[in-house]
Design brief:
heterodimer, A: two-stranded antiparallel ribbon, 6 helices, B: alpha+beta, Alpha-D-Glucose-1,6-Bisphosphate, Chain A, domain 4, eight-stranded antiparallel sheet, 42% strand
């Protein structure tokens, strides 16, 4: 996949709450499909479908154990996407911290503003 | 107050959510009065906002210009207001002068107040997936690398919020 399409696939994969929960689980260690399905009120085929999306995006990979084929996180790919979001977030968080301070100032002077 | 959450939604949207410990009217003022906007909407350290013009009516234009005071670099953007419902909702187009992404974006700012606190949701809809991606990539130019631990925290947070 080209870099641009790959990133699209990553963002599309991350847009779903179930898939984010699966990634969060895999961030703590390998897990089989059955283990991954357990916390969700979802059939195994439904979970497998989410896993295919994550695999297609390169966010997870299958282990080699013949029967279990546990899924594992591929940190590099996830890091690439979240790093971009994180940098963008930092820029805006800087703005919003200044806004916090301004709002404190406005609250203190609110009577003056209304007058 | 609280931390900023940024997520992608659908193919083209970026959604920012942040809680402020202030009534909605004040957050609204801080987004619509130039003398107030200039005090916080500054981006990375070193930049100031010499131009902030607002014609707050549907069809009215706004214009922002930032300047890096040491290097002298200038960056401008602007757009047109499409919807204004004080003090809760603004829809406006936005485009940077030297846009590094195709097309213009549409920003929807929604403010809701509960118990004296205001939740801000700012949704930016870009013209295409490619445009959104270019915007996110531009964030790579500054800032510090997020560690892998931080990443796990972010995921745990979003997973927690989802369940």
């Amino acid at each position: 996949m080209q870099a641009a399409h790959r990133l699209d696939a990553v963002f599309a994969a991350l847009a779903d709450p179930t898939r984010r929960a699966i990634l969060a689980r895999l961030a703590t260690g390998h897990a089989s499909v059955t283990e991954l399905a357990r916390p969700f009120a979802m059939s195994q085929p439904a979970i497998s479908k989410h896993l295919r999306v994550l695999e297609h995006a390169g966010l997870i990979a299958r282990g080699r154990q013949a029967q279990r084929r546990p899924r594992r996180l591929v940190p590099a790919r996830l890091g690439e996407a979240t790093r971009w979001l994180e940098r963008y977030r930092r820029l805006w968080e800087g703005n919003y911290r200044r806004l916090d301070a301004l709002l404190e100032d406005l609250k203190a002077r609110e009577t003056t503003w209304e007058a | 107050m609280g931390s900023l959450r940024i997520t992608t939604a659908g193919d083209r949207d970026l959604v920012m959510t942040r809680v402020f410990d202030a009534p909605r009217k004040l957050v609204w003022d801080a987004h619509t009065k130039p003398e107030l906007i200039k005090r916080w909407l500054l981006g990375p350290p070193g930049w100031s906002m010499p131009v902030c013009e607002i014609d707050l009516r549907v069809g009215g234009a706004y214009r922002y210009v930032w300047r890096h005071d040491a290097k002298g670099d200038v960056m401008g953007m602007g757009g047109v207001y499409r919807e204004i419902q004080a003090p809760e909702r603004i829809v406006a187009t936005e485009k940077f002068d030297d846009a590094w992404y195709p097309g213009e974006a549409i920003g929807t700012l929604v403010l809701t107040e509960q118990g004296g606190r205001t939740t801000l949701t700012n949704t930016l809809r870009y013209e295409s997936r490619e445009a959104r991606e270019a915007v996110l990539k531009s964030g790579m130019e500054s800032g510090v690398e997020a560690g892998y631990n931080r990443l796990v925290d972010v995921l745990a947070e979003t997973a927690g919020a989802a369940s």
